[in-house]
Design a protein that fits this description.
165 residues; alpha+beta; elongated
């Protein structure tokens, strides 16, 4: 598990993003998954900075860990007077879309209330597993790959990777 304690300041979002990106990429995580996790951590941290108090230490805690095919990201703060929840902003609203973005990118997300009034908002991002290679006896060769493509007249043609019709 990686944990970063950051000041309760907007500049902390960029710092958290850099740490998360470096850690996940160095562990071999796919770039698309790193991108999703980075957007999620940015939204959760921005919400904490905007709506919540810092922890008793004056900081915000950002954490992430990988468990098999899942990455959990979490932001802990000193709590707020409102519950983190997805809203339905109007088209002209300047904000209120953060948790909808998290909901779209994450498999799931939630809120954990800690003793002493702190709050942790977490999200799970799935890491796709690489495709299982075909057994050697069933290998696909260029001679066996066939694609059907329409020609300019709309009539299907067969292309055997060498441009024949």
């Amino acid at each position: 598990m990686s944990v970063v304690l950051l000041p309760h300041a907007t500049s902390s979002v960029a710092v958290a993003r850099r740490h998360l990106i470096a850690d996940l990429l160095s562990s071999g995580t796919l770039e698309a998954v790193v991108d999703d996790a980075t957007v999620i951590i940015s939204e959760l941290l921005s919400n904490a900075l905007r709506h919540a108090r810092p922890l008793d230490t004056g900081e915000i805690r950002v954490a992430w860990s990988r468990h098999g095919d899942a990455i959990e990201v979490a932001v802990s703060d000193g709590g707020a007077t409102t519950e983190p929840r997805r809203s339905s902003p109007t088209l002209s609203s300047l904000g209120g879309r953060g948790l909808a973005i998290v909901e779209t990118l994450a498999e799931c997300w939630g809120v954990h209330h800690e003793n002493g009034g702190g709050t942790t908002v977490w999200a799970i991002v799935r890491v796709p597993q690489p495709a299982t290679p075909l057994p050697l006896g069933n290998a696909v060769t260029p001679q066996t790959v066939i694609s059907v493509m329409p020609d300019v007249s709309g009539t299907p043609t067969v292309n055997l990777l060498n441009g024949t019709r």
